[in-house]
Amino acid sequence: MSRLPFYLIVGLLMAVGIGMSVHRHVQFEVPWTQGEQRTVWEVEAIIDFTALGNPVRVDLALPQHQRGYRLLTENTASPGYGLSFLQDETGRRAQWSIREAAGSQQLYYSARLLVTEDRRQRELPTPPLREITWERPYDTAAAQVIERAWARSADPHTFARELIHDFSEDRQGENARLLLTQFERSTLLVRLLNQADVPAREVSGLLLEDGRRRQTLTPWIQVFAGDDNWALFNPTTGAQGQPENLLLWESGGRAVLEVQGGSNSRVTFSMLSRNQPAAAAVRSQLADDTLLNFSIHSLPLEEQALFQTILLIPIGALVVVFLRIIVGIKTSGTFMPVLIALAFIQTTLPTGLIGFLLVVAVGLVIRNYLSYLNLLLVARVSAVIITVIAIISIFSVLSYRVGLNAGLTITFFPMIILAWTIERMSILWEEEGPKQVLIQGGGSLVTAVLAYLAMNNPWIRHITFNFLGVQLIIMSLILLLGNYTGYRLLELRRFKPVTED
């Protein structure tokens, strides 16, 4: 029978698992390791204006995902105002409204932004060219400035750079000085670029500096040479490119703040930088489940804590499969060591080992007495279960009385599994002797300890909880191990006499 379908299934599981994990790491920047730190900026915008006693509507441009920054959360404080978040082709805006307001007003908007390694440039639609008209003699001055910069350029970006340099202090001519008396520098540059058939617009950015207060936005020039080919220019220095600490707050060419029904409006910004664990920084985004971003972060915290433990079981299963199939360790029950390892996670390893040995030892003594009563299997196992519960209760009370609170955690042991373990070991003792009991009991304990060490590893806990694709990878590895039919490692000792000869 062909094994090709089997290997295709294993390969598909492996590929899907790896693909989901890599997508989650790249797209949502979930870290591979637990200790990674990320820089998060907390930016607060304060809107001040004087209401005139009429209906008021306030529109504020908002930041969005962009090169180097990802918006995590945003909050507002606006007592008595209605609030809506609007999205259109020019970007995102917050709109406050109230039927009547008078006097000094303050509105607050705060955002948390994650500094990312993503340096890809967003594709933006090319803004339409505006028809430019000038009064005399500004038309002649504008034409001459454009002609001079055009002659020294080769494309829209070099033309914009030369044009800005012509307005610098050391290269500023009479025509440039004349135009600056009529227009602001950034507005003037956009008009000149549009007149030269170069699509451009003025955008507003916030220079992020830790601990700064009462900051304002600075104008920048966005010059287009195609939808996916645009560059940012400093209108003062002519420097091309977006600085690392520049957050584009408004990039649609509209006003940052619009107030209807008020006067003397302004917006100022305060900012603070913090370092956070990377997993905590991106947790708010992980709750948005999609087909490729399937996770359990959308569940309540109580259920998340439960699944954090459940998702470790496949790791324990992989350890058991490897030790039984490849190494050849015998255990009492197939996956009993995994459940014991889960109990060790709750009790800590030393307490768990002592508790396990005590319960099993006392249980075997009592089970040995029950064998003389010739009870039926169901009644005998039920009696063992009650005995295990009684043993655990007695040990918990005694440990508490003597001040050993760690002994209380013995209640985390799976009582039904312990009862069946005692039953199987007792039968094994009667049929094959104490040697086999020690071999299988010791093998179970060694397997449980190794499974515990794997499941309790901080990196493994992080990976299994944050990357569900890992479950498919583990499944493919278990299927591959299940296809192994060779010798176990512990069986090779049978050939030791051959090597001696």
From TrEMBL:
UniProt KW keywords = Membrane, Transmembrane, Transmembrane helix
- Domain of life, source organism: Bacteria
Q: Which Pfam families match?
A: 7TM_transglut, Transglut_i_TM
Give the InterPro entries listed for this entry.
7TM_transglut, Transglut_i_TM
Q: Which intervals hold domain Inactive transglutaminase fused to 7 transmembrane helices?
A: 23-181
* Every 7 transmembrane helices usually fused to an inactive transglutaminase domain range: 255-498
Membrane-crossing ranges are 305-327, 339-366, 372-395, 402-422, 437-455, 467-487
UniProt entry tagged with the keyword Transcription regulation: no
ATP-binding as UniProt keyword: no
Q: What is this protein called?
A: Gonadoliberin III
Task: List the source organism.
Answer: Billgrantia montanilacus
Q: What is the lineage of its organism?
A: Bacteria, Pseudomonadati, Pseudomonadota, Gammaproteobacteria, Oceanospirillales
